[in-house]
Structure to design on (134 residues):
């Protein structure tokens, strides 16, 4: 990961883009690196209120830190809020590679994602994959 310029990120000035790898409504902003290439990258992810990312896996470990709102995180092949936990601002969690997990929230949330590329996601239920939906 290499940075070629000094940058400051403030929520009101971040250039959010739709994130097609996640269900509709998710937005992302790259901080540094390139998720399409091998190597570490850092990005912000923004989720609208009442958002769900169904059970899925990633090929590499991820570290997620909650910056705004509360985010529910759980492990398993299907969303189960009773088995997951709600995490507050400042909380971080590690998502192991190839380990099924899911996320949800009740209010708009922003997380900081530190991950290794090439970034990908495999939904436990292929019908949940927004890249395959009409």
């Amino acid at each position: 990961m290499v940075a070629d310029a000094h940058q400051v990120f403030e929520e009101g000035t971040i250039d959010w883009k739709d994130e097609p790898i996640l269900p509709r409504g998710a937005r992302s902003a790259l901080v540094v690196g390139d998720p399409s290439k091998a190597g570490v990258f850092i990005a912000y992810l923004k989720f609208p209120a009442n958002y769900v990312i169904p059970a899925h896996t990633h090929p590499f470990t991820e570290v997620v830190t909650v910056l705004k709102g509360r985010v529910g995180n759980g492990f398993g092949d299907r969303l189960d809020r009773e088995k997951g936990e709600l995490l507050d601002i400042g909380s971080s969690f590690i998502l192991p590679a190839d380990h099924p997990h899911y996320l949800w929230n009740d209010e708009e949330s922003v997380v900081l994602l530190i991950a290794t590329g090439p970034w990908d996601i495999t939904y436990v239920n292929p019908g949940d994959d927004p890249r395959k939906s009409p």
Notes: Residues 57 and 126 are 12 Å apart (CA to CA).
